[in-house]
Amino acid sequence: MPQRISPVDLPGVTPSRQQRSRETTLALLAAGAELLCTRGLAELSISELCAKIGATVGAFYSRFDSKEAYFNALLALTLRDGREQLLTPPPADPAARSDLDQRCRLLVRGIVLWMRQHKGVLRAALQRSEHGPNNWSGFKDLAQALSERATMVLLPAMRGTATAGRRAAATAAEKRTVAFGIQVVLGTLVNAILNDPGPLSIDDDEIADRLGACLLLLLRAGPDPTRPAAPRKSGAGRVRR
């Protein structure tokens, strides 16, 4: 859990005016994020969590109304950090390469690093959405914003030297191609976190390199924007008119 994020204004967390108390709150959150990397939310013990940082169970409940409120605070931290890491434009670097290959690799590496940092919380949220309260809506919103951000980053390199008329006609198709590419990247990483089927785990650096190359291939193999879209099917094989 990144130490640079202040927990003071998190929903469901009792605010504290004292620096030491705020540090204890942050330590509890950081400890829980670490423990969730090796166990599920149901197995996360409040007493073990408190013992890990030398706090009392009473100190926990003076800050969080319940275990659910505690986990919701962890989710809020994870989402906040995701917005900061994934949606904030990086500083301009005149010396950096700006080709599509490099942009894909940098974008995917940032996504992998964020998901790796929060893998325990993300896995717990995914498991919880399957069997209980749905905590995944905030992550869906983040994914949508990430897709829009990726479009801004990748589109200039995708268009290259296309004519102005071709660019205007291709915009919708290109945006959909980028969105699908991000969907593939996120889906692969979610599967790695939730099921870890191999051969690569979320902790393998190779997964970022391979997914970056995969995104590049998906963008280059996108549908021809001048080709009419195929009719969508509705129901059991019927074509929607």
TrEMBL record:
Region (Disordered): 1-21
GO molecular function per UniProt: DNA-binding transcription factor activity; transcription cis-regulatory region binding
DNA-binding among keywords: yes
Residues within the DNA-binding region(s): 45-64
InterPro entries in alphabetical order: Homeodomain-like_sf, HTH-type_TetR-like_transc_reg, HTH_TetR
Domain HTH tetR-type as annotated: residue spans: 22-82
Record's keyword terms, sorted: DNA-binding
SUPFAM superfamilies: Homeodomain-like
Superkingdom assignment: Bacteria
Entry-linked Pfam families: TetR_N
Protein name as it appears in the record: HTH tetR-type domain-containing protein
